[in-house]
Amino acid sequence: MDSHSGHSSAPFPAPRMASLRKLYSPVGQEALDQAIVLWLPGPRSFTGEDTVELHCHGSRAVVQGVTEALLALDKGGKARVRLAEPGEFTERAFANGRMDLTEVEGLADLIAADTAAQRKQALKQMGGALRQTYEGWREELKVCLAHTEAVIDFGDDELDVDEAAYDAIRPRVRRLSEEMRRHLADGGRGEVIRAGIRVAIVGPPNAGKSTMLNTLARRPAAIVSPAAGTTRDVVEVQLDVGGLPVLVSDTAGIREAARDPVEQEGIRRAREAAGRAQLTVLVLDAAEVLGREAFASLAGVGPFLKDAPPEDLETVLRAVGGDAGALLVLNKRDTVEGEHLLEQLRCAGAGKGGTSTAAYLVSLSTGEGVEEMLAGLQARLEEVFDKDGTDDERAEAPVITRARHRVHVERCLEALTASMGEQGLGLDVAAEELRIASTELGRITGAVDVEEVLDVIFRDFCIGK
Ligand SMILES: Nc1nc2c(ncn2[C@@H]2O[C@H](COP(=O)(O)OP(=O)(O)OP(=O)(O)O)[C@@H](O)[C@H]2O)c(=O)[nH]1
Ligand SMILES: [K+]
Ligand SMILES: [Mg+2]
């Protein structure tokens, strides 16, 4: 916005060099700000177009002054100027081939990232990790298709000759299918990192479940009171546990004797939350456990046990937490003789390490044992994240981060499988399946059929990005 009437014009900033400039309003020559100005000629800019960035101070008055000055250029007929729509810069970057859809999604995830794990994953995707995978597969398919079509066009009319020609393609298609199968079998890791691990806190009334949530959240997110049946609705809190995104749900105390319909509904929701969770934290009152032989007789556990109540803790925790098992927290340590209880737990097989039965004796009131429990929780969360990505190669491979990717890779794989179908399938059918497979991959990166997803993908972007 260098003045064209009055102020001595500084030379136009050199490309890609930060220049400190005074900004003036074109009307009235009023000074608006001192700002960093960047001149980024296309195509080496974010959108691929010629771009000027004004890095202004963030106050409302400065932003408003500069915005009005720019819009005034439009009114003066000197230039077409309007405010960008949300996500418009990114949409232009996509339209100009600077980014594919997976990179756009990575950028959206990066902007929304709350934890280190989410940031890491988003940066990788924004940097083209998924794009390379899908485009690489699409290239390979293109080659396979070209071979197949060549046989169709110039091959012998005899069916068996066609078949023989396609046999050369088969191993390549099979290899590709294998790669896709591995890509799909990621345990939903990428999607879990995006959405957060679901952790449900369950147990009998008054065990200290809400106190537990508040301890994890380090704020009074849920109401705590001595009255049994305080929590009715599921209270959900988003947390960062050692860089991992976690969604913790506090739930209503589970007891079989509940008569009040509201409490019954609360219990139904509690069990539903436990069913959805990737990790369940079972909170019990230590005094309740003390001296008991059969863990299954514990209040709050019974409803999870479908058949005859088992005696051992391991089975109880599996019943509560499903395949992942549950983390057991015995609370109110301050009210019991702790050593005796720990001994009892050890006999029951808890805390063997590496198994699903990790038990912690804590007092959420005094803080005793809480640090150890938090470390245990974090270790379990890391296990949940890593359950399918333990070896290095897997950990480095880009992961599916949205249901959209999964749907198209699955359809692609189906088409590939069909293309290798029974003998005598016919080459033109095989070619058609390869074409379908390629289209499905193209839908992920936005190379084909892009209109239907654009709105959804750009909807969540902010203005100016
Ligand atoms: N002595 C002692 N009391 C505790 C401890 N932790 C929680 N409490 C108390 O136990 C009572 C119940 O705590 P809550 O957190 O409301 O228990 P809850 O499991 O959420 O209860 P419901 O929502 O009613 O099922 C409150 O009075 C807490 O202050 C503890 O470690 N020691
Ligand atoms: K309570
Ligand atoms: Mg509660």
Automatic annotation (TrEMBL):
One of its GO terms (molecular function) is GTP binding. Residues 196-382 form the TrmE-type G domain. Keywords: GTP-binding, Nucleotide-binding, tRNA processing. It comes from Nannochloropsis salina CCMP1776. One of its GO terms (cellular component) is cytoplasm. It comes from the Eukaryota. One of its GO terms (biological process) is tRNA methylation. SMART domains: AAA. Pfam families: MMR_HSR1, MnmE_helical, TrmE_N. HAMAP family: GTPase_MnmE (MF_00379). This is TrmE-type G domain-containing protein. The keyword Heme does not apply.
